[in-house]
Design a protein that fits this description.
Mean pLDDT: 93
Order of helices and strands: HHEEEHEE
Helix content: 10-25%
C-alpha cells in the first residue's frame, strides 16, 4: 500500500485539470505561507495528503481502500469560490481514472463535501473526502 504513489496520482490529476487550475493558484501538500499571515497571495489553493489506508485484499490480489482528504482554501467574502473549486475537484476525481504507479486503479468516489469558516474569520475552508480503491500490480 503506497500512500505516496496515490498522493502523486491525485496531484497529477488535479494539476492537469483545466477546471481546477482555472480557479486554484496551486495544489500543495504543505503550502508556504506569506510572512504576513493576513496576505491573500496564496489564495485560493488546494491541499492534499491526509490519507487513511485500509487493506482491500482478495485471495488473489493485494488491494487498498484509501480515504483521501482534499482541502480548498479561499479568502473570498462568500463560500462560492470554495464551492466552485470543490465542484471542479469532484469533476476531476469522482468516477474518473487515476494513474497510480505500481497499482491498478479500480474506483474513486467523493463521499463527503463541505465548506466552513476558518477560525481566522477570513478564510473559507472546504473539505472533501474521496474513497479510492486500487490493487497492487
Amino acid at each position: 500500500m503506497s500512500g505516496a504513489n496515490l498522493q502523486r496520482a491525485i496531484y497529477a490529476k488535479l494539476t492537469g485539470d483545466a477546471g481546477v487550475m482555472s480557479i486554484a493558484v496551486g495544489v500543495f501538500s504543505d503550502p508556504e505561507q506569506a510572512e504576513d499571515s493576513g496576505s491573500n497571495d496564496p489564495f485560493p489553493y488546494v491541499t492534499i495528503g491526509g490519507d487513511d489506508l485500509d487493506a482491500w485484499d482478495t485471495k488473489t490480489t493485494i488491494g487498498t481502500e484509501a480515504t483521501c482528504q482534499v482541502d480548498v482554501w479561499s479568502r473570498k467574502n462568500s463560500s462560492l469560490q470554495a464551492k466552485d473549486l470543490q465542484s471542479a475537484i469532484k469533476s476531476a476525481l469522482h468516477y474518473q481514472p487515476l494513474t497510480i504507479t505500481d497499482a491498478q486503479h479500480v474506483m474513486t468516489m467523493q463521499t463527503t463535501s463541505g465548506v466552513t469558516d476558518d477560525p481566522d474569520g477570513e478564510t473559507k475552508h472546504g473539505i472533501q473526502l474521496f474513497s479510492v480503491r486500487y490493487v497492487e500490480t
